[in-house]
Structures are given as C-alpha cells and as structure tokens.
Design a protein that fits this description.
alpha+beta; Nuclear Transport Factor 2, Chain: A; 5-stranded mixed beta sheet; 6 helices
C-alpha cells in the first residue's frame, strides 16, 4: 500500500494520553530509601535478629534474585497468605515463580538493592517498609512515591504467615495465568512484583510513545530512529537507518517547500482512546485513534488543518530494561 505525503505525515503519529478529567497530583513529601538497607535487618535480641535475617533472605534471595528453589529455607510449608489474589502454600509460590512466571535466578546475590525505608520487629513479627514509585495517573512520564509494606510472622526462623496491602486489580488488568498444577492462582509476592512491574512498564511505554511524537514533530531523525528496535518497522520502512533516512528526507522536502514560499504550519499529533495490552512481560500492544494537525498553535498565523485521522496498532517490546517500538501500524485492516 502506498501512502500519499499527507497520509504519511499523518501516520507518523505519537501517543499522548488525553485525560478525561483534571488530574490529581501527589501532595506528599517523597519517600526516601535507607542508604544501607541490609543494616536494618539486624538486632541485639537473638530471636529478633534471626527473624530479621530471614526477612532479609526473603527480600534479597527470593524477591530480588529469584532463587525460588531455595524458598523452603525461609518459608514454611503452609505459608499462610492474606491477599485477595494469593492462595497459601510454599509449593504454590514456587510453582508460580519457577513454572509460570519463569523467573530466572540471579547466579550471585550478594547485596540487597531494594529501596527499603525501615524494618521493624517485635515478638514473632517483622515488618518491612519499602519505597514504591508509581506513575501519576493520566500524566505520561511523571511518577510519585508511596510506601509498600510486607509483614511476616515467623515460626522457628521461617515465615509462616504474611500480610501486605495488595488489592484486587482493576477490570482493565490482564489476569495472571493459573498454574497448571492447580496450585495457587498467583502468589502474594508474585502479585506484588507483577503489579509493580506492570505499572512501571505501562509508564515506560507511555513515555516511549511521547518520545516518538516529540521526535517526529521536531523532525529529529536520530531521536526518531532511537525509539525503534534495530529491526523495527514503520509500514514498509524497516531498520533504524532506513527510518532515520525517511525522516531526514521528509524534513528536507518540507524545508524546500518553505524555501519556495509555501506556508506550512508546525505538525502536531493527537491520540485518544489509547489502550495498552500486555501480551507477555516483554511484549505489549498499543491501540489508539490518531489525528495529525498542521498549524493552529497559539499565536500561529496558520489555522489548524487536520491532515488525516485513523486507527493504529503498535507492537512494543522490552529489550533489556528499555521498551522500544517493534512495529508501527497506522492502517490496520482489522
């Protein structure tokens, strides 16, 4: 399919979320993590020290380094959960992380890097407070901090019961797959980690699409190519070098037309009804309606001109710790 120039301009669409209502910004002071979190997991009392050290292993070896084959060292067999998305039991926790989420263990796990704020211990209980960074709803690229807690009750140095503030996910959330063994649908700690990671990924994808639109509206070939994977594609244009050349050629064409006396308003992109669907932890699909407008900015002598509108379906993938566009399709057939 061949695009006319106006359609091609219109198709170079970025994704900027349009809030349906005024956004509420955080009012709290930022949550600050302790500079040496492992120092918080100690006590002069022998029993409290043992329990704190077990909590440290849960945070470090299990939640951070995914060494779930060792979970029995610090969790009891019955491991009672208090979470609307988690069933109890050591085997269910291990089955989820090892067989469903397929978390790969880190070979070495020498230092806790989680943003811990405080650790409190009394009797059989240990509570860990951690910094949690979340996206500001409806404002791509902005985040705020709040506090997550985990409380464990220990029996003979192992966690036997667990509490946290987890809630049922919103309707839009994609449910986690249930283990084939018929064990728990999703471990408490799994739900915590998956929810936090998905929110962080959602914010990163929104930022990616914002970077896309700023790159093309600014006619920046290098920034435009950088938001794609090395073999990423827009229509039939594939690969970063080809994408970079495409934008450079379009910019040169516009510059030439302006030099000939044509009045061309600045390009702006608008996107609405955006939906981000996670197909797996490293692959998401972004669907939206798009509109490309030339001119019409505040103080501009040119009135706004809607070049084209349409619907888009983009595939984005996580490469390392960065989300990139793998395929941009602004003319889907279904």
């Amino acid at each position: 399919m061949r695009f006319s120039r106006s359609i091609l301009f219109a198709a170079l669409l970025g994704c900027t979320a349009m809030p349906a209502q005024a956004q509420m910004r955080p009012l709290n002071d930022p949550v600050v993590a302790h500079p040496n979190p492992e120092a918080l997991f100690t006590s002069r009392d022998p029993q409290l020290h043992r329990n704190k050290q077990a909590a440290l292993h849960i945070m470090r070896e299990l939640l951070q380094c995914n060494q779930w084959n060792r979970a029995g060292e610090w969790l009891t067999g019955r491991y009672i959960q208090h979470n609307p998305l988690a069933a109890s039991g050591l085997k269910g926790v291990q089955d989820y992380f090892i067989n469903v989420a397929k978390r790969q263990p880190t070979p070495t796990c020498d230092k806790l890097t989680s943003p811990i704020v405080a650790v409190q211990a009394e009797g059989d209980y240990v509570t860990v407070l951690a910094k949690q960074e979340l996206p500001v709803p409806g404002i791509p690229g902005e985040t705020y901090t709040t506090t997550w807690f985990d409380t464990w009750r220990f029996v003979d140095g192992k966690a036997d019961e667990h509490w946290d503030p987890a809630t049922l996910p919103p309707v839009r959330a994609t449910p986690a797959p249930a283990p084939a063994s018929g064990g728990m649908a999703m471990g408490n700690m799994a739900q915590h980690q998956v929810a936090l990671q998905q929110e962080a990924d959602r914010a990163a994808i929104e930022r990616l699409m914002w970077d896309y639109v700023r790159a093309i509206d600014g006619w920046n070939p290098d920034a435009y190519a950088a938001v794609f994977t090395p073999d990423g594609a827009f229509g039939r244009t594939k690969g970063r070098e080809a994408l970079r050349t495409m934008v450079a050629d379009l910019k040169a064409s516009q510059d030439q037309r302006r030099a000939q006396g044509q009045t061309i308003g600045d390009m702006h992109h608008v996107m609405s009804n955006q939906s981000i669907e996670f197909l797996d932890p490293n692959h998401a699909r972004v669907q939206y309606y798009w509109m490309t407008v030339f001119g019409g900015a505040a103080g501009s002598p040119t009135p706004p001109n809607v070049a084209a509108v349409g619907r888009g379906v983009d595939d984005v993938v996580k490469v390392g710790d960065k989300w990139l566009i793998a395929n941009r399709n602004v003319a889907p057939t279904n």
